[in-house]
Amino acid sequence: MFFLRYYQKIVTTIFLLLLVSACQPAKTKPVMRWQQAIEGAYAGDISADAHYSVYSSLHHGVSFWDIKNNALKFTWSQQQNNSDNLVLLTKIANDNSMVLTANRTDFSLWNTTTGKSMGFWRVSGSNIRDIAVSNKGRHILIGKANGKVKHITLATGRRLEFLGHKEKVNSVDMLPNGRVAISGGNDFIAYVWDTKTGQIIYRFNHPNRVIKVVLDPQGRFAFTADSHKKAKIWDLKTGKLISTLQFTQRQQIFSSARFSNDGKFLATGSPSRFINIWQVSTGKRLTKWQVTRKEANYPTGAVVYSVVFGDNSQGKHTVYTVSSSGYTELWQIPQ
Known about the structure:
By secondary structure, the chain is mainly β. It has one helix at 2-23, and strands at residues 32-35, 41-46, 52-57, 61-66, 71-76, 89-92, 98-102, 106-111, 117-122, 128-133, 139-144, 149-153, 158-162, 169-174, 180-185, 189-194, 200-205, 210-215, 221-226, 231-235, 241-244, 256-259, 265-269, 274-279, 285-290, 304-309, 318-323, 327-332. Helix content is 7%, strand content 46%. The strands form seven sheets. The chain has a four-stranded antiparallel beta sheet with strand order 1-28-27-26, with no helix packed on it. Strands 2-3-4-5 form a four-stranded antiparallel beta sheet, with no helix packed on it.
């Protein structure tokens, strides 16, 4: 009788545990997943409309993909023959017209319609730290380790150097028309500046090195994050602080960020596999996931290279991610 009661108790406990777990929403796995870099990736990006992805990988070199059809459109080569010139930076223009790729000293521009190279350039004096490209590839932004940011207008060859930073630049971005740029560096400062004049529009101070900066393509917001615990959303029209992201970790590093089209949400990716969705107005975290690990035994983690919101025409927000595991993944934000 004792064993019968003991057995019944175990069965009841298991049933209750299963019932509780069944009530938990299954939000930990992506809705869909596409493997587009078989052996992992050195860099990656997703187009603003989530139609295309680009990867730098050992298997394909630089590859440009149609996500919806999981179709490889083009493969490009930028002389990735040793560790010194691996393509570590990729950026798709907001209008999908061009892809900008860069290693430590060189950068290339590629046409996404024809697949042809639009040019190959070398940077002297300092290594490339980050890149951005405007619509039609008219303007290119290069952040450098010597603290300089170079804005290049390809049609005229005009080059403007922004000299506001006193130390290494870590992150850059610009509006799709190329007229306003943002840069953040080891001097604890993020600058928003005019690319025609080089004049500073806003200066955003941080208590630590600024690791990530992003502009909303519609010109509404700026995102700046440092190497410890400060990540902020700013009003790009007034320069005033909108919100500070609310997280409890001792240190939170961001490797990617993107605003939703309706301006309500911010999606961020990290070097530790995490994707977080934040409310712009309050900085409150709404949900989080972890991207798929790399299949190889080492490394076991994954860096989220790019994150973008999908079509929300039916009132449902979706998010696409590209990571170093070589997977493009689709996620559903709970309502």
